[in-house]
Every structure is written in C-alpha cells, then in structure tokens.
Specification:
- The complex is a heterodimer of chains A (268) and B (235).
- Chain A is mainly alpha-helical and 268 residues long.
- Chain A has one domain: ABC transporter involved in vitamin B12 uptake, BtuC, CATH 1.10.3470.10.
- In chain A, 82% of the residues lie in helices and 0% in strands.
- Chain A is built from 13 helices and no strands.
- In chain A, helix 3 packs antiparallel against helix 11.
- The termini of chain A are far apart.
- In chain A, 51% of the residues are buried.
- By secondary structure, chain B is α/β, with parallel strands linked by helices.
- Chain B folds into two domains: 149 residues, P-loop containing nucleotide triphosphate hydrolases (Rossmann fold); 68 residues, no CATH class.
- Chain B is built from nine helices and nine strands.
- Chain B has a six-stranded mixed beta sheet with strand order 5-6-7-3-8-9, with helices on both faces. In chain B, strands 2-1-4 form a three-stranded antiparallel beta sheet, with helices on one face.
- In chain B, a hairpin with a 3-residue loop joins strand 8 and strand 9.
- Classes of the chains: A mainly alpha (268), B alpha/beta (235).
- The interface between A and B is medium-sized, with 27 and 35 residues.
C-alpha cells in the first residue's frame, strides 16, 4: 500500500494516470462502434499514419501532437471516403495508406536525425514521459471525445446498427460516420503516446470484443467496455511500475487476459 | 386521396438505365406489392422512394403531410445486424430517430411509443433480450416495430419474409395485413413470393426494367402477364 502511495506521489505518475484513464475511456467507447461497423483496421491504419506524421514533425522540429492530430484526422476522413468508393477496396486502401505513411516517416527520419528516443517512444509508447503541456492537451481532447460520444449516443447507435434505415429516416449518416472517424483519429494520436503506434489498435479493439462476449445490450457493451478498458489500463500501469515492464505492452497483456476471462464467462 | 405518386420515374447506375417509365400512385390504406424477377429494379425503386437514390428523370410526389423521412422502412437484414449486441428495446427505440429533431436524447413520449409498438408486435416480453439471440421471425417483428416507430402513414418493406420458415412467414404476412387494415397504414412491399402477394395486396406493381403492370390485385389475376408468371410457379 505504501508502495502505491509512493508510486502516485510522482508527478509523472499522476499525469500518466489521468491521461491514461481518459484515453482508455475514449478508445473503449469508440471501439464498440468501430468493431461493429467492421472498421477495426482503421485504428491500425491511422496509427501508422500518426507515426509518419510524428516522424516528419520531429524531423522538422515541429510540435509533435499539433502536427499529428490534423494529419491523422485528414487521413481518417480519406480512409472513410476510400471505403465508400468502389475503385479501391477498403482493406487494400488502409494497407496502402498505412504503409506509405510509415515509409514517409522512416525516410524523413533517416534524412534528418535518425531514430532518436522521441521517435521510438511513439513507436512503443511511453506514457511516463508525458510533459505537462502534452498532458493538458490530451485531457482536453479526450474530454471532448467523450462528451461528443455521449451527446450523439442515440444517433451513433442508429448509424452503427443500420445505416440505410438511419439514412432513410433522415439522419445525416455521412456526418456521423465522419464524426466517428475524426474522434477515432484523435483517440489514436493521444493513445500513441501511451501505447505506441504498434499497440494502440489493441486499446480500441480488445475492450469492445471482451464486452461483447458477456453483454446483451449495446448500452451494457459500451459501459462494460469502458470499465474493462480502465481496469486493464490500471493493471498494466501497476505491472509496469512494479515489474519494470513497458507500459503499453503490459496494458495489452492485461486486455488479452480480460478477453480470455470474458470468453470463458460468456455464453457464446 | 393519393399520398404518394410517381411520374415517369427513371433510375440509372453509372449512366446505365436499370428502371424506366414507372407511373403509379398510392392511396391511403392501399397495400401495394412490388413484384418482378431478380434485377428487375425493385430494390432500386425502394431506394428511390426513400430518397436514398435520386431518380434520373421523373418525380416522386408525396402529399397529405407525408415526408420522405417519415416512411417506416424495413430493410433487408445485413450480416452485421445478425450478430449485433443490442437489446430489442434499443433497436425498436432507434426507430424514433426521425422524431428526435434537434434534441439529443429520446423523450418520455418516444420511449412510450417504442413500448407500445413492441406490444403491438407481441414482443414486449423480449424487451431486454439480445437481438442476435432471437429467431428470424422474432427479429423481423423487432424491425417491424422499429419501422412503426418511424411512421404513422406508410410502411416500406423490402423482402420481409426472406429466410423465414413457412409458419413465421405466414405470421409476418398476417401481421402486415393487420397493420394495414387496423391502423390504416399504407404498405409497399417488395416480394419474390407472387402467390402471397396477390393474396394479401390490394394493388400490384410488376417491374422488369420497366413497368409491366400496375393495377388492383383482381385485375392483375386476369392479366396475361400474371397467368404466365403465376403459372410458372405452379409446376
């Protein structure tokens, strides 16, 4: 217990705790819609775009988050458009964009500084190295994501469950699909700091999948996913503190265990 | 009085015409069945009526205060919906979306409307059940209750009995007829099953890239088109 108190007496731990909980919540809420709409891969694709943007920003000495958020938001909208067009298949579009972004990132890095700690922290995550400014920025954005999700909950449910019905009854489905993509983009960029570009998509997908195993209603799935996500984050953070393992990877392992438990408990 | 009138409707995909020359009107209380072979333009017409696809030519006139967004629509089910974790109540309530206006959340009246429509469809006991665990017939009732939440005047049903067993099929047809007669809600139904269509509907629209027939079900039975089409079914 004293070890825990001591652990959270560090400023960097407090920041990690607050930002981590909020980002986990965002990821879980959006994850349910993304998984159900078969958009899971978008989170993964966006994380690569995010890495590319951060690498370019770092090469040009620009503020990383301020560059990455708009770039990833644009990429999200583009991915959504590509999915709807028949010219390129959705999954191929994602693969195309994500590997191109990764390549651009790697080339711009090699032309400038090479792989520095900043960049590798975005690849594998380092929630403990959050600066005060980054933390404030992350808290504000994730609160905005959660607020928008709650306010538009009935419409997001309808658009997720049955797009053509929603459109026929006059809901602007494109607007809400775009909203979903933009919120996902923001969450991905924020989550990259914690999880790293390589692991962020698991933060989005795992809690939703776990909750779907044990819940019957959409609301219950959303709430359970949020709960699982926060619990797994806490478990991962504690494990990484006491066992000195990387935070992002520890959180993913906690999520994997939670999924296993839900699978065993669930009826299907 | 006509609540819906189509004049010389024409639909095309990427410049290629798939349906042309559609002229019909629907009065309050009518039960119109749209029949025709696969690819004859039935689904396209439905999309046009719902405003999901703009016609190439012609016009769709709605009157009697009916708006395109106030048509209760029962779409063909997609694979996503079959394993979607949502309770029956949540699905039915989402039919009230078009009454939401600028509000963010469902009011008490809308929740009440969802409950009433669940009772009408005899699914009030399933309220908390998960949609994905229901039988095919129950799922269709849920979607019908949702469609009723969205309208007071016109229901549009796209192949509502596909994949149902004969008993569930018959129940579904009776339920639709009941809604049509008791609540005076007009029905437009797309169907493969021409025999049932002629039995339940008041009017028939037969499509085959163009309008082959429009008239009452009784007239349709006398037509040479129907004799060929119905005869083909009774081997």
């Amino acid at each position: 217990m004293t070890a825990m108190i001591q652990m959270f007496s560090y400023h960097f731990m407090q920041r990690a705790l607050i930002v981590g909980i909020l980002v986990s919540l965002c990821a879980a809420l959006l994850g349910v819609s993304l998984v159900l709409k078969r958009y899971s891969m978008i989170g993964d694709g966006l994380s690569h775009v995010g890495f590319g943007a951060l690498a370019v920003a770092s090469a040009l000495n620009l503020a990383p988050l301020a560059v990455a958020v708009p770039v990833v938001v644009l990429a999200a909208i583009l991915l959504l458009r590509l999915r709807q067009s028949t010219a390129v298949k959705g999954d191929a579009a994602i693969a195309m964009i994500s590997s191109s972004a990764l390549a651009i990132g790697v080339v711009s890095l090699s032309l400038s500084t090479g792989m520095n700690t900043e960049v590798s922290s975005y690849l594998f995550g380092s929630v403990l190295s959050l600066s005060r400014g980054d933390a404030v920025f992350s808290v504000l954005l994730s609160l905005a994501v959660i607020a928008l999700f709650v306010l538009f909950y009935p419409r997001l449910f309808a658009v997720t469950f049955d797009e053509s019905f929603s459109r026929a009854t006059g809901t602007k489905t494109e607007l809400f699909n775009t909203l979903l993509a933009v919120l996902t983009a923001i969450t991905v960029v924020l989550g990259m700091r914690m999880m790293g570009a390589l692991l962020i998509s698991s933060l989005i997908i795992f809690p939703a999948l776990s909750a779907m195993r044990i819940c019957r209603s959409f609301k219950a799935v959303v709430l359970t996913a949020a709960g699982i996500s926060v619990l797994c984050f806490l478990a991962g953070l504690l494990a990484s503190y006491f066992l000195e393992t990387p935070t992002g990877a520890s959180i993913v392992i906690a999520d994997l265990l939670a999924y296993g438990i839900c699978r065993m408990v669930g009826r299907k | 009085m006509a609540i819906l009138e189509c004049r010389n409707l024409c639909f095309a995909y990427e410049g290629k015409q798939v349906l042309e020359g559609v002229n019909f009107s629907l009065n309050a209380g009518d039960y119109l069945c749209v029949v025709g072979e696969n690819g004859s333009g039935k689904s396209t017409l439905i999309k046009g009526l719902l405003g999901l696809k703009a016609p190439e030519q012609g016009s769709i006139l709605l009157s009697d205060g009916l708006k395109a967004t106030e048509i209760g629509y029962l779409p063909q089910q997609t694979q996503v919906q079959r394993d979607f974790p949502a309770s029956v109540y949540e699905v039915v309530l989402s039919g009230c979306l078009n009454s939401l206006g600028n509000r963010l959340f469902y009011s008490k009246e809308l929740k009440q409307r969802a409950l009433e429509n669940m009772e009408r469809m005899g699914i009030e006991d399933l309220r908390g059940e998960s949609y994905q665990n229901l039988s095919g017939g129950q799922q269709q009732r849920v979607l019908l209750a949702r469609a009723l939440c969205a309208t007071k005047k016109l229901l549009l049903l796209d192949e509502p009995v596909t994949g149902l067993d004969p008993i569930a099929c018959g129940e579904m047809y009776n339920l639709i007829k009941l809604i049509n007669l008791c609540d005076n809600i007009s029905v437009i139904m797309v169907s493969h099953d021409i025999h049932e269509a002629v039995r339940y509907a008041t009017h028939i629209l037969h499509l085959g890239h163009t309008q082959l027939f429009f008239g009452t079900a009784a007239e349709y039975r006398q037509s040479s088109l129907a004799r060929r089409f119905l005869g083909g079914g009774q081997i």
